[in-house]
Structures are given as C-alpha cells and as structure tokens.
Amino acid sequence: DNDDKDDSPVNVPTTAKPTEVKLADDAVTVTGKAEANAKIYIKDLSGNVIASGNADASGNFTIKLDKPLTDGNKLNVSAQSEGGKESSAYSITGTKDTIAPDAP
C-alpha cells in the first residue's frame, strides 16, 4: 500500500497457558502454575468468568470455586500477564460423581 503507516502486525506479548492445573478432591480448589504474577481466570464453557485470582511471584496459584465442579462438568483456566494477551485455556473436568444412581 502507498501510505506511510506501518501495516505490520502489532506485536502483542503472548501469555503462556497455565500448566499443572489440578482440581482438588474437594472439587472447589483449583491449583496450578502460570507466569509470575499473572491474573488467572476460570470460566464456564460460555466464556463467563466464574472465579479469578493471581499467580504469586513463583507462578503458583490457588483459586476456590463458589460451587463444586463435579459430574463431568468442565471449566477453562487461562492466564493473562500484565500487558499481555490472555492465554489459551487449560480445560479441567470435575470427576467427583454426585448423581445418585437410579433406583433398582
């Protein structure tokens, strides 16, 4: 193109996806690792933030959910560093079974 504007893509820093994300046996405590001091978002499958917190200076985070994640339901955990883009999501699944079996 012939204008004086720089048409190259803007280099927005990317944020690494959280790792070692685990749902504790209590089904409400989510732990993991991310970039140091990153903001951590836990979202439902519609993209709504249902919990958030921050990683510490070593990148460790612990976030409590308001409701237990159970029965095969899924949530997505992502990180955002200061000035960076939000990372891709790490999916977690609630494995605790709270559904009563059908009566015989």
Please explain how this structure is put together:
The chain has one domain (19-93): Sandwich (Immunoglobulin-like), CATH 2.60.40.10. The model has no long low-confidence stretch (mean pLDDT 91). The chain has no helices and seven strands. It has strands spanning 19-23, 29-33, 39-43, 49-54, 60-64, 74-80, 90-93. By secondary structure, the protein is an all-beta fold. Helices cover 0% and strands 36% of the residues. The chain has a four-stranded antiparallel sheet, with no helix packed on it. Strand 1 (19-23) and strand 2 form a beta hairpin.
Brief summary:
It contains no helices and seven strands. With 104 residues, the chain is mainly beta.
Topology record:
Elements (H helix, E strand, L loop, with lengths): L18 E5 L5 E5 L5 E5 L5 E6 L5 E5 L9 E7 L9 E4 L11
